[in-house]
Amino acid sequence: MKQTLLLGTRKGLIVCRKKHGNWKITDLHFEGVPVSIAYADERNGTWWACLDHGHWGVKLHRSNDEGQTWPEVTAPAYPEGTEVKPGEAATTRYLWAVQHGGVNNPNRIWIGTEPGGLFRSDDGGENFQFIESLWNHPSREKGWFGAGRDFPGIHSIIVDPRNEDRLLVGVSVAGVFETTDAGKTWAVRNKGMRADYLPDPDSEVGQDPHILVAAPSNPDVIWQQNHCGIFRSLDGGHNWLDVSDVNGIAKFGFGIAVAHDNPDQAWVAPGTSDEKRVAFHNALCICRTDDGGKSWQAFRKGLPQENCFDIAYRHALAAAGDDVVFGTTTGNVFTSNDRGESWEALSNYLPMVYSVQIC
After folding, report:
1. What is the mean pLDDT of the chain?
2. Model confidence, pTM
3. Phi, psi values for residue 77, rounded to 5°
4. Taking 80 as the threshold, does the pLDDT of residue 269 lie above it?
5. 125-131 contact pairs (CB < 8 A, 24+)
6. What is the distance, to the nearest Å, from the Cα of residue 167 to the centroid of all Cα atoms in its chain?
């Protein structure tokens, strides 16, 4: 049973521990500094903290002792001469995704960044290699663009445990890309997705997945919360099906989590719309499907039902076992120990929550 909770927030990394069945805040690291992602590597217990200093830029730290010490490692950097577009140099503006490289590559770490670069380390983070093949994909210069941020960003990285050279990455805004050779070549995997904001909603590139999550019990089942709905693939991302709740509220949102033991069970935190980005009708709820998106049920017990403006960011919803946890843009963190059917507030007074991981 996982007993630790890492919260990346606008004002630091907050650590919680489960004691006697309840989550309690126990530690704070990098007080006052935005932590875009806090990530625990399940292979070796290493903790990673991606920092977003306003003046000093991005910083990367790791801890091999659960936060007792945090040595800094050199953050991924774009090679000199790399340009976002002609005449504009590419620099690392945000660290948006961290993913380990699999049990057969024990020292491999992948990091996704804004403005759309993917980096790989094969020595535990001592050195990072820029994956030029994805950057040089013919769709990038004219088909990738920023949405809520100035530039495109790689926010999701899925490593196939059966073939650790196979990755899926999510790019906002561009879509899903797959490699089967550890980043040497790439294929677009957006078939079935929809971009209502484009002149051609079925455009091969220009789709906007908000997050990608593979089902732990079946890596071929991949879910995404998308700008234009909820999508699901049963064939490893080759084809996508819109599984939004046509007559309900499970449509627009950012975060999605999938059950460890059931590829058909998933949770989303719905928002009113892409224009407003607040809780649906100012009442907070979590929606769950138990049948692969054929039907959705909204759970509200223990969540505020009036005057609520909260929404959960793309990395701020997580599930492990019967535990489901999410954090919000106004610093509320809610926990459930019954797969989302009832909720308790861990705290109502935290900074804006960027990421949640149960480890």
Report:
1. 96
2. 0.97
3. -135, 140
4. yes
5. 125/48, 125/60, 125/62, 125/73, 126/73, 126/74, 127/74, 128/74, 128/75, 128/76, 128/77, 130/76, 130/78, 130/79, 130/82, 131/183
6. 15
Q: How many CA atoms lie within 13 A of 204 on its CB side?
A: 9
Question: Closest Cα partner for 338 from 299, 303, 294?
Answer: 299
pLDDT at 150: 87
Beta bridge partners of 94: 114
CA pseudo-torsion sign 269, 40, 57, 114: negative
Q: Report how far residue 351's alpha carbon sits from residue 234's, in angstroms, rounded to the nearest whole number.
A: 37
CB atoms under 10 Å from CB of 80, counted, come to 7
d(CA 302, CA 353): 19
- What is the spatial distance between Cα 86 and Cα 191, in angstroms, rounded to a whole number? 30
- d(Cα 17, Cα 227) in Å, to the nearest integer? 33
Q: ∠61-95-7 over CA atoms, to 5°?
A: 65
DSSP letter string over 199-242? SSTT-SS-B-EEEEEEETTEEEEEEEEETTEEEEESSTTSS-EE
pLDDT in tens, 173-190: 999 999 999 999 999 999
User: What is residue 277's predicted lDDT score, i.e. its pLDDT?
Assistant: 86
- Chain centroid to Cα 266, Å, comes to 15
Q: How far is CA 46 from CA 111, 184, 229, in A?
A: 15, 27, 34
Nearest Cα residue to 178 out of 231, 232, 147, 137? 137
The secondary structure of 143-166 as a DSSP string is H---SSSSS-EEEEEEE-TT-TT-
Give, as one character, the DSSP assignment of residue 89: E
34-63 exposure pattern, b = at least 16 Cβ within 10 A, e = fewer:
bbbbbbbbeeeebbbbbbbeeeeebbbbbb
Kindly report whether the peptide bond that precedes residue 173 is cis, defined as omega within 30 degrees of 0: yes
